[in-house]
Amino acid sequence: MTLTTQPPVETPPAVRARRARRAASFSPSWWFAVPALLVYAGVVLYPSIVGVFYAFTDWSGIGEGKSFVGLANFRAILGDEQVMGSLGNTLLLTVAILVVQNGVGLLLALGVHAKLKSRTLLRVIFFSPVVVSPVMVAFLWKYVYTPDPSAGLNGLLGLDIDWLGDPSVALWSIAGMVVWQYAGYSMVIFLAGLEGVPKELHEAAMIDGAGTLQRFRYVTWPLLAPALTINLMLSTIGGLKLFDQVFAATNGGPGYATETLSTVLYKQAFVYGKFGYSTAIALVLALFVAAVSLVQIYYLRSREVAQ
């Protein structure tokens, strides 16, 4: 009796590819992310989802006593002068930070991008405020903004201004504090964009007779569009949710002159015990930041494509 050996049956390529994808989906490397995902879900996702529910209640933040109030909290927001005033302050701060911080950051990036012997040291100096705690920066600038005519900024400029106590000046003083801290961050992003501009383009423009401003306008600036998009996005989000510097420097004062949406929702929750109302303000702020960010992304991305 003769035994015959059957040739091995070849697996079709589609089946092999499907098995490979299935094996990759259960690869051990994915399991390393599970602990981090669980922590993120427990610390961020779950509180956010529960917070949406509390925005429709009158919970005080203590105990189990709460009742569903529907849209009452959101109607109260529209009639709350403090919230509306803080919204105006938040928008003014955001615009000021957006324009000045990125303008200063671009100038610093252009300066340290030049062939200077001290450019590395200057980069470190300009970026160093970014790594300092915002609360520490606020306390530092409270001394700089001291109303004493012989000390701080008044003594340096020979002025007599209550920088944080004058309602007409306090908001812009906060903006200056934030710009001082984060202009170096914008500088680094612009500097990364400048490093990506090919030198050949500048050399070709110089051969064509283009001056310094013309080379910046027609060569450098269009190629900085991705860096500009990132900076504008970060500046806008940071300005809209600004809290630390305001809370540590003025606590929203004098009066409500520097109150922002973040400080208002904090006080509503932990000072006045209106946790449900505070959560409603936080939800409105989150949706507002998301909407502004989406509009910015759409506009700036279309600008990048156009250039």
From TrEMBL:
Ranges annotated as spanning the membrane: 30-56, 91-112, 124-144, 169-197, 218-237, 275-300
SUPFAM superfamilies referenced in this protein's UniProt entry, alphabetically: MetI-like
Gene Ontology terms: biological process: transmembrane transport
Annotated ABC transmembrane type-1 domain residues: 87-296
Membrane topology: Multi-pass membrane protein
Primary residence: membrane
Keywords for this protein: Cell membrane, Membrane, Transmembrane, Transmembrane helix, Transport
GO CC terms, sorted: plasma membrane
InterPro entries: ABC_transporter_permease, MetI-like, MetI-like_sf
Intracellular or extracellular location(s): Cell membrane
Pfam families listed in its UniProt record: BPD_transp_1
Domain of life: Bacteria
Family: Belongs to the binding-protein-dependent transport system permease family.
Entries under PANTHER family matching the protein: ABC TRANSPORTER PERMEASE PROTEIN, INNER MEMBRANE ABC TRANSPORTER PERMEASE PROTEIN YCJO
Protein name, per record: Raffinose/stachyose/melibiose transport system permease protein
